[in-house]
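Weekly sync, protein design subgroup
Attendees: M.S., D.O., the rotation student, P.L. (late)

Item 1: inverse folding check
M.S. brought a backbone from last month's batch and wanted to see whether the design step gives back something sensible before we order anything. D.O. pointed out we never logged the input encoding, so this time it goes straight into the notes. Structure tokens as presented (122 positions):
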């Protein structure tokens, strides 16, 4: 039996055994204004099969996902094979602390500037 939820005017169907993937999206402070877009805006750097793997990428700054400007990272669940990829799961936010050379991402709250935005992946 499918779980049906209303999102705005869209009706979303989700099977209980659906495959959930995890997007890792880096975000420049101030997104979506024009200045931040010139500096990179946002980008999805990974889609992972487990939440653990998504966290490993962020916490180790794998492949230098920080790139001197992506101060925020969000992990979101994505339902495979679903319209709009909707998954009503939690967002996991990280903030860069420290210098470009010696800093790291730490877990934190969603920045107030992003309000209640969901669906950061591209």
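Designed sequence read out in the meeting:
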């Amino acid at each position: 039996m499918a779980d049906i939820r209303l999102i705005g005017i869209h009706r979303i169907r989700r099977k209980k055994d659906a495959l959930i993937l995890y997007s890792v999206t880096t975000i420049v402070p101030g997104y979506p204004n024009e200045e931040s877009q010139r500096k990179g805006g946002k980008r999805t750097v990974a889609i992972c099969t487990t939440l653990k793997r998504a966290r490993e990428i962020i916490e180790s700054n794998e492949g230098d996902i920080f790139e001197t400007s992506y101060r925020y990272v969000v992990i979101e669940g994505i339902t495979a094979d679903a319209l709009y990829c909707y998954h009503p799961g939690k967002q996991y936010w990280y903030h860069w602390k420290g210098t470009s050379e010696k800093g790291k991402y730490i877990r934190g709250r969603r920045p107030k500037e992003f309000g209640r935005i969901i669906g950061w992946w591209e």
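Discussion: The chain is about 10% helix and 40% strand. The beta strands are 2-7, 10-15, 20-27, 42-48, 72-79, 92-97, 104-108.
Action: P.L. to compare against the previous round before Friday.
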